[in-house]
Amino acid sequence: MPAFEGLLPQKHDKIVQVLLFRLCEWHALAKLRLHTETSLELLGQSLRQLSDQIRKFQSCTCVAFQTVELPNEAARRQRREVAELQSGQRTKPSRSGPQCKTFNINTYKFHALGDYVGTIRMFGTTDSYTTQVVSVYPLRCLYYIADIHMKCRVNLPIESSRGFMGNQTRKTWSASSLHRSGGIQSSGGSAKP
Question: What's 61's DSSP letter?
Answer without folding.
Answer: I
